[in-house]
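Input set for joint prediction.
Command: fold jointly, output tokens.
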Amino acid sequence: MITLTVNGKKLNYSGDGDMPLLWYLREDANLQGTKFGCGIGECGACTVHIDGSAVRSCGVQMGDLNGVSVTTIEGLATNNELHAVQKAWIEEDVPQCGYCQTGQIMATVDLLKNFPNPTDEEIDNNHTNLCRCGTYDRIRKAIHRAAYLMKSED
Amino acid sequence: MNISKSISRRNTLKIFVSAGALTVCMPMIPIFGQEDGQAADTLFDGKLGPFVQINANNTITIGAPVPDMGTGISTTLPMIVANELDADWETIIVEMIPNSHFMDEKNRQVLDYVLQGTGGSGSVTNAWQPLRECGALAKYLILKAAEKDLLISQKDMVTENSYVIVKSSGKKYPYSAFADTAAKIKVPGLKKKTSQWGDYLLRKVDFSETKSGPTIKVQGAGNIVGKPKGQKLARDIVTGNIEFGFDKNFDNQLVAMIERCPHYYGKVKSFDATAALKVNNVVDVIEIPHLGEEGQLKLNSPGVAVIATNIWAAKKGREALKIVWDKGNFSHENNAWHAQEMRDAISRDDVKTLDEKGDVDEALKTSEKIFEREYEVPFWEHFCMEPLSCSAHVMQNEVIIKAGHQFPETIAPYVAKATGVPFENIHVENGRIGGGYGRKATIDFVSEPVFLSQKTGRPVKVYWTREDDVRHGFINSSALYRIKAGVDENGNLKAWDAISSRKGTAWMEGFPEKHVPNSRLKRAYPKIKVPTGAWRGPGHNTTGFVIESMIDEIAVGLNKDPLDYRLEILGVDKEYPFNSWTPVPVKNKTISSARMKGVLRLAAEKAGWGKKMPNGQGRGIASCFTFGSYAAMVVDVFVDDKGNLTVLKVTGAADCGLVINPLGAKAQMEGGCMDGLSAAIYQNIQFDDGRITTGNFNDIPLVRINEAIKAFDFHFVDSNEIPTGLGEIALPPFIPALMNAIYNATGKRIRKFPLGDQLKT
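tokens >
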């Protein structure tokens, strides 16, 4: 039996230990904001946080997750107040199809923990999620805007 | 309660699907009489026309009829309605409305109000007029109601931000104050009318026979159209609350993964499901044959489906299958064979001349200088971020389909035929589309769950993996193009002889063909069988590269400025006819050389064309006409001494008529350029043994943020022409402008894609 916390809620899991977290979140926990894009950790559409760090959930097995705390896009806003990164995404009108954007946002939240005021080069070297619509220019602007918003919120 | 049990065709029409929630609105009546003087609440059951609902708190809900695959259409179309309605955009609520169509008495499919499919950059053009009319109708009814309730003449009223303002008194009344009265106002002559619209029958709201009925704003007027607006559904997207096709489920559904025959047009010879059936939670293994009609090469890829209660079990079960494939007749095909076949086809006698004028052979003989070049492009995949998925529940007399499909109106006719269930009992719940690019326009991914639900009697959801998606698509054809051009002693183009060798048509007409006195367009027919289909800017996506690279080569060869040379060829302002496909039925289709010159000049001016570039940098220009719109790009690049490419800036201009939402329009331009960059430098689908061997993003990288274009500067020609599309117009000129820039920086002319390591050798 695996016990883990998802968006603050304690949950139990007793199925296949080798099932990726991604499918647990989507099928068992009914949290479909986390997306499947490649299944091999290349695209980042399935990015969530495990104990506060960004992880591609298609490559993490349920058997290894006893006691961890998972945050998904559904758990990012607090009391209906959007996270600064989500706000920045809306303000820069980033999404096109929108499919990869929840993963982009989760990756950015973690990026800004390590680089609260990232340079373009730091973004280039550390933000590796794929966007097939090519919204990168707006993603970059939104990352900078989010950094600014987070400082003003402090 | 099981939704599939309770839903009926008529009820489908009243369900607005939005943000994952089902909101039941006032029902619409699908068919009704056409006698004069009906009120909106009879015609549209309480709503002020098919797309407008005024809510009690004076917010206005506007239905968005066309699926959004990243085009921003779910914001653009409601803007058109809201503009006509003088609504307060900030309080507008956008809801996606389901597919609405019916069979008429002659058993012909009639679509309601607008074309709900999305492709060919046609959504705005197609919906523009009907949506203006629907907005105008709603405003007309509100003003009539205000007159009635307030006993004041309309002449003393203005409408603004969802309020009626009485000029003489200055009093303000919310639209909602008149909503009930408005819904009951009878409008003599108001009716719905069915007429032919291109290939479709379309039933529109018609008030052409009303006396002093609704009037539409002069094109370009209003406070919403033409102003930059963020996407209405952005909050749902960034919170993960929007449902894509991949997220659509049935309660109690089974999940299927299909091992499809990897060889195109091959099939299952035999299979052993023993091990698969032993996997925990696998419930069944079912062979899927080719579901197409006799003689149809491919509707779907035949294979073996593993049915389970969850996706992980289905995947494991699939891996445990043992299948022997019948490879079919095309296992001789691979990349080298394709390349040779395209070459061989050019010299075969089935080459067809598509268009010819003057005497090309003679003109080439007497030319001062001849340029002969060859360009080659490999197969390109769609790589939609959202892999395919579709769920179906086939019941005895009812079918429910859930997907993210570009042309939802094509689903019911197929399903009716496949299942025998009457058309009116087939309900399609279409989700947001996680990238389409033409891939989600076909019926293959719908046919499989329909078949499996018929077999199991349960709702079935079919998931595609990334590899499934890449290996079983309908992809962009590879192509070989050869152009021979002759110029006179002054450098004027006098002969243009172009041939394409590829599967499917590639239009090379228009520029410069129509401007050269002696020109000929030919097409060769390589016997390549790879399943091909629409891919962002079909045909134009590679002919743009070829034609605009060739023009650049000639200009450089003649020591002429590439911009000046293009303007010279375009010459005096004129309109000339063209034959290639357009998204809207148009009589006398023409291309305007003036509009083409307009975008070239605008892009050049904004980029500061002609300035000297620093060392290692280069600049290129190109322009194209695609599906009714014109675009020109100036691309600046830097190539370091190791051959590493950086795209510094794209300065672009587009003439797409009236721009509805400049913010969304720019997004389409940005996306088109990024897509073009990925395609040109990386896309190179690999084949062997008559099958695609490329599988996932580790086989073909796509551009990420570190390689992305560093800056954009887009401008739109100030135009009051009918709005035309933008989704596909940036890519065709971007790719050649990029290649011309690379030449300008390095002296290396790229004639074969992908760019790959060509700058590094």
